[in-house]
Amino acid sequence: MLWRRMVSMMVLKQIKFRGFEGEITHAIFVKSLCQQTELDRAEEYLRGLLRNGGVGLSSGIVVANLVDALCKNKHFTRAASLVQDFRESGLVPMEQAYVYRLLRENRLEEVYDLLMDMKDQDIIPDDVTMNVTLCFFCKVGMADVARELYDSRAEFGLSVSSMTYNYLINNQLGDASVDEAYIVLKNAIQQGHFPGRRTFSNIADALCREGKLDRVKELVLASLDRNCMPSDST
Q1: Do 141 and 119 share a domain, yes or no?
Q2: pLDDT (0 to 100) of residue 182
Q3: Is the pTM of this model over 0.70?
Q4: Are 38 and 5 contacting, i.e. CB atoms less than 8 angstroms apart?
Q5: Which contiguous run of DSSP H or E holds residue 212?
Q6: Is residue 2 a part of any domain in this protein?
Q7: Cα dihedral across residues 202, 206, 208, 209: positive or negative
Q8: Which of 76, 98, 123 corresponds to the end of one domain?
Q9: Structural domain that includes position 81
């Protein structure tokens, strides 16, 4: 343990001496301290960075590493205090960074709970975070959760991307919910987004199978208005 601590300090000194100090190096050092359960030193190091203006902490990843380590070691009060202090500083978007970590670890229920808590507290996640989250829920087959978050887009102030619309539409179709997919597509068109040919063909074929030709005609006309030609099979 002592040997590892000495190596960590030597590496950090060399990094600072060579002028390479930044978010990545902060993250490596804090993660090293967390792996050694040197949580007090890791917190002291982070708070020192905060006192110096928070340079290298802007994405929140470094802080999220320590928050996660504190939680895993059951120091929940300290973790909550750390999140609150860094949030109040206005320098670190803690929630967004923690959402990414939870997604990477497949802790999807916690992602949903965190986003709902953010909404209740009027904390608005950035568009990139929300779009990544929606796509992730679609990929793992949680269409109902993705749709619920999508339906709350006005409360989150979310601007949905074209890629996310494609995921949502195809996911709704996969759940045999053609009407839901059609509604999402209509919203996408109203926002100036139009799906790729494959997505368009999928929803048009599904509508045809249900005999909803008026809706297919509406989609074809909308696609022609945007110079997006349907496939030959449509």
Answers
A1: no
A2: 86
A3: no
A4: yes
A5: none
A6: no
A7: positive
A8: 123
A9: 27-53+60-123
Are 172 and 135 part of one and the same domain? yes
Nearest-Å Rg of the Cα atoms of the chain is 23
SS3 at position 122:
coil
| Mean of pLDDT over the chain | 74
Question: For 75-107, how does the pLDDT look when each residue is reduced to its tens digit (9 = 90+)?
Answer: 877 776 777 777 777 766 666 666 766 777 777
How many domains does the chain fold into?
Answer: 2
pLDDT for 151-162, tens place per residue? 888 777 778 888
DSSP string, 23-82: HHHHHHHHHHHHHTT-HHHHHHHHHHHHHTT-TT-TTSHHHHHHHHHHHHTT-HHHHHHH
**Residue 104 neighbours by CB distance under 10 Å:** 9
Quick check: 12 pLDDT over 60? no
Q: What is the DSSP letter of 229?
A: P
Residue type for position 216: V
Domain for residue 162, yes or no?
A: yes
- Which tokens in the block code for residue 165? 């619309």
CA distances from 51 to 57, 91, 140 (A): 12, 11, 41
pLDDT classification of 197: cutoffs 50, 70, 90: confident
